[in-house]
């Protein structure tokens, strides 16, 4: 479990470009990239570039910035990938299912008629697209 900067944090490594990610959005404070084990094509994670652990730790101003990017990217998933719905999800704490302890919001695109086994996915993270496929989707979503 990663709970502080002293420990290795995979999302901090992505921010520093020390770990690969298929990035869909970046500004001075916020980074968004595709989940490596997506629940649907285009499943995006939105993070503050600075390391905050969870909802108790993140400053309200930073949460506002993440919300604005969530709106932009949520609309973008609908407009560019042909979805008609989006779930915004966040987990604070292991009891809630948080597995990476760098604050993040999940944007999960949805389409009518396709149900998603949230519970199963949460524990299995079953889908493993190739980096090539992730990069192609990220490219399609670039603003
Ligand atoms: P949580 O369970 O903490 O809400 O979600 C963490 C998410 O981060 C998971 O959906 C998981 O698939 C994703 N994830 C974990 N490691 C990596 C990684 O190295 N790269 C990317 N792009 N996503 C990751
Ligand atoms: Zn971090």
Helix content: 25-40%
Q: Which structural class is indicated by helix and strand composition?
A: alpha+beta
CATH superfamily: HIT-like
Terminal CA distance: 33 Å
Q: Give the strand line-up of the largest sheet.
A: 1-2-3-5-4
- The average pLDDT score comes to 90
**Total strands:** 5
Contiguous uncertain segments of 5+ residues: none
CATH topology: HIT family, subunit A
Bound ligands, each once: guanosine-5'-monophosphate, zinc ion
Shape: globular
The helix-strand sequence is HEEEHEEHH
Q: Strand percentage, roughly?
A: 15-25%
Radius of gyration: 14 Å
**Biggest sheet descriptor:** 5 strands, antiparallel
What's the number of structural domains?
1
Instruction: Count helical runs.
Output: 4
Q: If classified by CATH, what would the architecture be? A: 2-Layer Sandwich
Identify the notable features of this structure and list them briefly.
single chain; 143 residues; alpha+beta; HIT family, subunit A; five-stranded antiparallel β-sheet; 4 helices; 32% helix; 17% strand; globular; binds guanosine-5'-monophosphate; binds zinc ion
Write the layout of secondary structure elements.
Blueprint lengths: L9 H6 L7 E4 L3 E5 L9 E5 L11 H22 L3 E5 L15 E6 L7 H7 L6 H11 L2
Antiparallel strand pairs: 1-2, 2-3, 3-5, 4-5
This protein binds guanosine-5'-monophosphate and zinc ion.
The site of guanosine-5'-monophosphate (5GP) has 15 residues, from strand 2.
